[in-house]
# Entry
Amino acid sequence: MSKATPFVKWAGGKRQIMNHLLEHKPKKFKHYYEPFVGGGALLLELAPIHATINDSNKELIYVYKCLRNKRLFKKFYEVCKEHEVNHSEEYYYQVRDMDKKKTAYAKLPMYVKAARCVYLNKACFNGLYRVNGKGQFNVPSGKYEKIKCFDEENIQALHKYFHKRKPVILNKDFAEAVKTAKAGDFVYFDPPYDVVGEQSFTSYTTGGFDKKEQARLRDVFKELSDRGVFVMASNANTEYVQELYKDFNIHVINARRSINSKGDGRGKVEEVIITNY
Ligand SMILES: C[S@@+](CC[C@H](N)C(=O)[O-])C[C@H]1O[C@@H](n2cnc3c(N)ncnc32)[C@H](O)[C@@H]1O
# Structure
């Protein structure tokens, strides 16, 4: 089976630090869990036989569900192609604003929402997925003349993998998603990263993941570790993260970030990979 790669540009995508992740993953494990799957770079790199993936982003999870099911995949594929043909600046805003009519949007089939998610991700500014307080997608157009929703060979490879392996696909909170993990399984946490500064104590950071959430994640990390699960997490190298995980192995690495909403976070930043083994 040829190796598939992520179908979305996702903030926090892990392609840049892949070598470090592969270096620090356990040698052997049973079931693979990725509770903050995003674009799923490590999942696709490992292509495990048994896996559970999860994300709190509903639309993203619809795409994974379409990749797993033959009938949904066909329909999803067709709608993506329609978006490519119809694409224009005006069309982008029409598709983007579909979720402003809440009741009508809720009634749309899953494959339509999935195709919209992929199209918006490719056509929006900087490949950013951002919703406002009402949960509506609010990123401006990337002003591209032509849009390709996916690479043909890659989308077929993705469909082949998901259809064959049928991973469990969840849309829950991360703590719920790992409840079934047992000794010998491997959980990789890639949460929204900790942010330095006062602001992150009081206001919502990306995905509403504040300091309290980081601490809750550490508690789940510890619980799994006590159960004999192999646990790995990535995060920013902040004092707070160092303090939270001081009882575990912390590996500091250099990484390059290309997606940042303000465009000022580019370049080299230190990250950490934490393991309990
Ligand atoms: C840093 S990204 C993951 C990037 C991914 N590993 C990749 O390679 O693209 C974090 C993800 O966590 C999700 N998320 C945020 N809060 C969550 C929660 N409480 N439970 C589950 N997922 C959550 C976001 O929707 C986002 O997709």
In short: The pocket of S-adenosylmethionine is lined by residues 6, 10, 12-14, 35-36, 38-39, 41, 54-57, 173-174, 190-192, 207, 209 (CB under 6 Å).
